[in-house]
Amino acid sequence: MGKYYNESIIPSELRRNFDVYDRIKKLGIDLGTWEDNVKSLAGAGIAGVVFSESGITYLSGVGKGTLPMIQDDAVIKHGQEGGKEAADHHIRALHWALVCGGEGGDLNDVLYTVKALGMVVSPGGGCFGGAPSVVNGYSFRWQSVFGGGRSDFAKDGIDPGGFSGVHTRSAMGGFDGHFSQEPEIIVAIPSALSQAIIKHRGWIFPLPPATFEKVKALKK
Question: What is the sign of the dihedral through the CA atoms of 90, 95, 96 and 97?
Fold first, then answer.
């Protein structure tokens, strides 16, 4: 388990009993390289990840999939696959946001998941009623990494590794766009880890330019 996770107040019966990175490997999720994922905030319009001193951590939405949703099983399946891609994107972003500064934290320090919001592209407003089903592609992939009753590792609705990937959620359709869905998510990490990150390199990822140069130099 993570260095900071081990010091959390989570009851013993609710603690994860697996290495998150083992599941990531089994699921075939590519976390990429430091050079490809750790960037300067220069010129960026929004942040990808924002840390707070409390440990509540926010990840911006990302649009995945290429088809607008309609009441068609194949199209809905496409949207769900887009949700899996979005979950993989967020897992990768959160990994590098946690590890890039060398404060000692990683994905094993995620305590639990707070909330997801999935916005589904389905022109016509109320004509499409399958937004929750589409966003399940995202939510269930997230559970597969962090634990939950709908994860790939669950049996009879119970994940032997725990439930720290289960989250509250809203799933809304009726949006226009050139993708299938745009999920965003909020997670909780130990406040001590979040404060160590903020103290060392700030609260935002990608990194502010001066901080990026400092962290890049430390990597060498």
Answer: positive
Tokens of 30: 């590519």
Contact between 62 and 117 (Cβ < 8 Å): no
Domain ranges of the chain: 48-219
Q: What is the mean pLDDT of residues 139-153?
A: 98
Q: Distance between CA atoms of 138 and 3, rounded to whole angstroms? A: 28
Provide, for the chain, the percentages of residues in helix, strand and coil under a 3-state DSSP scheme, each rounded to the nearest 5: 40, 20, 40
| Position 84, amino acid | K
The SS3 of residue 137 is: helix
Span 48-219: which CATH code?
Answer: 3.30.1330.40
CA distances 182 to 11, 95, 134, 171, 177, Å, are 33, 20, 11, 10, 10
Q: What is the pLDDT of residues 99-109, one digit of tens each?
A: 999 999 999 99
d(CA 20, CA 197) in angstroms, rounded, equals 20
Q: Is the pTM of this model over 0.85?
A: yes
- Sort strands 168-175 and 181-188 into parallel, antiparallel or unpaired: unpaired
State how far the Cα of 31 lies from the Cα of 92, in Å rounded to an integer. 5
What does the DSSP assignment read for 95-119?
HHHHHTT-SS--GGG--EEEEEEEE
Q: Which of 48, 41, 36, 32 minimizes the C-alpha distance to 213?
A: 41
Residue from 190, 165, 146, 185 nearest 55 by CA: 190
| Structure confidence at residue 1 (pLDDT) | 72
Structure tokens at 76: 């809905």
